[in-house]
Amino acid sequence: QGQLVESGGGSVEAGGSLSLSCSGPDYLFGRASWAWFRQAPGKGREGVAVIGPGGRDRDYADSVKGRFTVSTDNAKKTVFLQMNNLKPEDTAMYYCAASTRAGVWRLAANYNYWGQGTQVTVSS
Asked: 18-33: per-residue pLDDT in tens?
């Protein structure tokens, strides 16, 4: 299992914005699907957004549609999650994940590369 590195978490008031970044091994870009998951205390890991290897196919959890945007920059070997209009219920540890396997994108078990996580806290 390879290591991904997230950055950009922090604390913000409701309605604010944060941008998360994730860097990983060169060989994954253009080959793997990339996703962001989050996990709040006492809850399971939830798929938030995914982007396909080509960088065009994207999908989002209903709870973040219209507020979050996932993107990749293959030249910089980085995946981004732009989060706008944040809500207190978005508070969680956010994880970057990559998958070279086929499967349902929301299932964490389908991902073979993970980061350590970055905390996002949204106050009301």
From this structure: 999 999 999 999 899 9
